[in-house]
Amino acid sequence: MLKMKLYHDIFDRELPPLEEVEHLVQEAPSAEHWHMLGMVQFQKLIFHQAEVSFTEALALEATAERHFHRGVTRVIMGKFGDALDDFEAVLRFEPEHFGAHYNRGRLLARLRRYDEALEALETAQRLNRAQANRLQVGRAMRTIRRLRDGDTRESFFDRLRGLLGT
Fold it and tell me: pTM (2 decimals)?
């Protein structure tokens, strides 16, 4: 079984209260304010509204970060094709964006596009080995190779790690 965490930084940010950001958007709608509103909504798990806010921000000014955050939101909402489009947009802005390569690889694996997934994850691993190790990219790549090759058995060590929760 392939288990990979979604990579993002939204919960790591300290943001103003929702009501304050909503007021900012009403008083001075800007790409920055819409983006901030989307992040606050994401933190509050209001994903449909967060997607709308990120889309509003992107309509005013497209950036890698805004596409990335909308892509993460869309993954959670199950909009995998749209999320892939967002991660690919991130890579047009920033070709070496670790999170976009990692999340793109994660999605491609889920869609059984294994060769593309491996390529994206290899790039992510090359860009930030420490983060890739923390997210167990090497282990995921081994599993993807087995799935691609038709071998759905887990290795003894992968089963043991799963049992131990490591």
Answer: 0.86
